Amino acid sequence: MKVKQLCINSYKPPVQSQNWAQSLFLNLYRCNSQQISRHLHRLKVNNVVKGGQSFIFGEEKVGLAVGVKGSCYNAGGEVVRKARQYGFGTVVLTQNELNIKETSQVISGLIQANYKYKLLGDVAQEKQQSDENNDQYTYISDLHVQENIFEDPYFQQLVQLAQIKLYARDLANTRQEGTPQFFVNEVKTLFKDNPNVEIKILEGQQLQESQLNLFYAVGQGSIHPPTLINLTYRGNKDSQHLHALVGKGITFDTGGLHLKSYGNMETMHLDKSGACNVLAAFKGAVDLKLKVNVTVTLGMAENAISNTAYKPSNIFRSHKGLTVEINNTDAEGRLVLADCLSWTQATHNPTSILEISTLTGACAAALGENTGGLFSNNDELSQELLEIGKELQEPFWRLPVTDEHKDMMKGQFADLCNIGKAKVCGASKAAAFLFNFVDEKTPFAHLDIAGPMDSKADKGIHPPGATGFGTQVLLKYLVNKQE
Ligand SMILES: [Zn+2]
């Protein structure tokens, strides 16, 4: 969707002067239900639709007024669904009672809800052809806003953040074509000719040669070799600081020999969402030429079953040197991440580390589909991320890592085990395991997005499929770290 500047303050002139016949004129009000009734009366419209936390009414495909109450982002989502229902491809923001911050959030929600995953690979062509006619006005292609809004830095930033989040969804929604090699090709296409970006790839046995044995073990059963992708962007050569992002990229998680059951495996192409969000945030930092140094590590592997798959009871020496016994092959994300975290520190000695992963069903059970779990060794970092998440409607909730959790992850025959015997506090146990692989003095946050990684319904700011939840938080964090 293109966001454009509208050079008028009222919708009357362009109705005559331009071809606005297919445009939806959007009016935004800050209202409760009594106030919206008064607006309705004044505008002489009927057809009242109450949707979510906004109240919407239309006048024969001419205008849509939204009384925003509650989440501005969700109000933007309602606009999209209404525009789709009426068949509008262009939205023009005309009357607006909201302030810049609220308006920006409505438009951000609109961009986020106005998304549809386009198929890739062999299946794409046929499907796209049949879709083309239907799609013409199904999705909003142009959005026009007034000059004072368009030029506002807060508005510009929210639009940029929302658009980069859509790229994260494109990556996460890939199906069988979304292999580790796909991601290698993607980063080469994006950054090969960019002198400010350094690309490092460790593929297959190169992982073993570099002692990333946990990472290699997870991917050793797949025909797609496990691959570490590391990208470094130096946007501020005068600064000593380097911020690290690490993402879990399990391109498909069968569970391994502890095979997942029917009902638990169907969305496991999304188990790479953490890495996809990290790659998108990195692309955002490069595209926006942020004055920040950032290194990102994507741990890409398929957790498959085959005669070469790793097995329960196996014991591996990690990149850090700690030994780990495998009690459950479905607790594979933490193994990949453990090696990615210690490799990233050994290679780059970063100032701070944010790691994001669809790590535990336990976190989803605790916090639901709209909130991520946050675990950190640093109160200040934790507070910063909670505040960013709240503002961008990607909220996180801090959960603890205690000595009790750390004890549960001690191994019987090795230093650590990968799941622990007690069937409790799975999210905190996974975080406790990861804490072993991070230098205590480095501010570190682990973001568990297993709950909000996907949307089952077309609701709020999310169409069905990958949400990209957390992408904006990562990118906004980097924006804030500019010096
Ligand atoms: Zn798993």
UniProtKB/TrEMBL annotation:
<feature type="domain" description="Cytosol aminopeptidase">
    <location>
        <begin position="328"/>
        <end position="335"/>
    </location>
</feature>
<dbReference type="GO" id="GO:0008233">
    <property type="term" value="F:peptidase activity"/>
</dbReference>
<dbReference type="GO" id="GO:0070006">
    <property type="term" value="F:metalloaminopeptidase activity"/>
</dbReference>
<protein>
    <recommendedName>
        <fullName>Cytosol aminopeptidase domain-containing protein</fullName>
    </recommendedName>
</protein>
<dbReference type="InterPro" id="IPR011356">
    <property type="entry name" value="Leucine_aapep/pepB"/>
</dbReference>
<dbReference type="GO" id="GO:0030145">
    <property type="term" value="F:manganese ion binding"/>
</dbReference>
<dbReference type="InterPro" id="IPR000819">
    <property type="entry name" value="Peptidase_M17_C"/>
</dbReference>
<keyword id="KW-0645">Protease</keyword>
<dbReference type="GO" id="GO:0006508">
    <property type="term" value="P:proteolysis"/>
</dbReference>
<dbReference type="Pfam" id="PF00883">
    <property type="entry name" value="Peptidase_M17"/>
</dbReference>
<dbReference type="GO" id="GO:0005737">
    <property type="term" value="C:cytoplasm"/>
</dbReference>
<keyword id="KW-0031">Aminopeptidase</keyword>
<keyword id="KW-0378">Hydrolase</keyword>
<comment type="similarity">
    <text>Belongs to the peptidase M17 family.</text>
</comment>
